[in-house]
Amino acid sequence: MKFDLLRSCKSIRRLLVACVIIMASAGCAAAAAEGNQTAVARLSSAKVANGQVTVLEVNLRDRDLAATDLKARFDQNAIALFQHPLKPEGIYCGLVGIPISSTPQKTVIKLEWTDSDGRLQSASVPLRIVEGNYKKEALRVAPRHVKPSPKNLKRIKAEKKEIRRIYTSSSDTRLWYGNFIKPLTSNTTSVFGTQRLFNGELQSYHRGTDLRAKTGTPIYASNSGIVRLAKNLFYSGNIIIVDHGKGIFTNYAHLNKIDVKAGQHIARGDQIGLSGATGRVSGPHLHWGVKINGAYVDPLQFMIVISDLLAQ
Ligand SMILES: [Zn+2]
C-alpha cells in the first residue's frame, strides 16, 4: 500500500511537471536552459494577425549576460532590442511586425546570446499568425500611375532601392519617447491592409492608414526621430520618412508641401508638412505608414501596442 502510494505520488509529480512545460509553451513564455544560463522571453500577444505588431520581452535580469550580444530574429529580419522603457535594467523588448503577406501558421521568434562561459545559447518563442481578414476596395487614379511609362518604371525601380536602403538602416539608438500620435486629428478614410484594385487592374495591399485631410492641412510628426527622406516619389508623391530608431519608421505621403529636410532631428508634434494629393491618389488625404523591423503594420494597432507597453 505504502509502495503504491509512493508510486502514484511520483506519477502525479511527473504529470505536474509536464503540465508546467506545456503551459509555458502555450502561454508564449520560452525558457531555454543550457548550462546555468536561462533567458526568459514572452510576447504581449502570441496570436497575431498578419499586418499587426506584438511585443517581445526578454528578461535577462540577474543572468550575468552580455546583453549587447542578445539577438532576436523573425522571418529573416532582425528585431532591434532595447531596454524596456519602464522595467528594471536587464529587461529588453523589441517590436515584431508580421508582414501583411504572411499566411496563417505556427512559427517562432528565435533568440541567440552568449553565456558567461562564452557558449552560444538559443531559445525559440512560439507565435501563431492568424488571418487578418482584410477587405478589398476599387479605386480610380490617373492612368499614368497604373501603367507607368518605361522612363517611370526606371524611376520606380531606383526609388524602391533608395527606400529599401533607408528601411534597413534604422538608428541603433531609441529616438522615440512616449506614445505615438496620429499625424492629424481626423477620420480614417481607408484602413490598413485593404487589397486594392486601381482602375480595375493593378492589385496591392494598402500599407498604411489614410486620414481625411483637405489640401493644406498641417501634418505633425508621430514621435521624435530623424528625417531620412523628404522628397517626391512616383507613387507616394511628396513623402517624409522618419526613423524613430530601433527598427521603427513612420511615413507621411501625398503631401502638398514638405517642411523638413533629410537628416533633420524632429520632436513629436512638430509640423513637418502640409497634406495634399501628390503621387498615386484618387483625391487629397494623408497616407500614414508605419514600418517595424522590415514589415509594414497597421498604424492604429501599433499605437495601441505602444500605449500598452508604456502602461505596464
Ligand atoms: Zn494610403
Describe the structure using short key phrases.
312 residues; alpha+beta; 2 domains; 5-stranded antiparallel beta sheet; globular; binds zinc ion
Could you walk me through the main structural features you see in this protein, from its secondary elements to its overall organization?
The protein is of the alpha+beta class and 312 residues long. The chain has two domains: 29-130, Immunoglobulin-like, CATH 2.60.40.10; 136-309, Glucose Permease (Domain IIA) (Distorted Sandwich). Helices cover 17% and strands 40% of the residues. The protein is built from three helices and 23 strands. It has helices spanning 2-26, 150-167, 299-309; strands at 30-34, 37-43, 47-49, 53-59, 71-74, 77-79, 82-83, 91-97, 105-114, 120-130, 136-139, 188-190, 195-198, 202-205, 209-211, 218-220, 225-233, 237-245, 248-258, 265-266, 271-275, 286-292, 295-297. Strands 12, 15, 16, 17, 18, 19, 20, 21, 22 and 23 form a ten-stranded antiparallel β-sheet that branches. Strands 1-2-4-8-7 form a five-stranded antiparallel β-sheet, with helices on one face. Strands 3-10-9-5-6 form a five-stranded mixed β-sheet, with no helix packed on it. Strand 5 (71-74) and strand 6 (77-79) form a beta hairpin. The chain is globular and about 60 Å long. 35% of the residues are buried. The chain binds zinc ion. Residues 190, 206, 208, 210, 287 line the site of zinc ion.
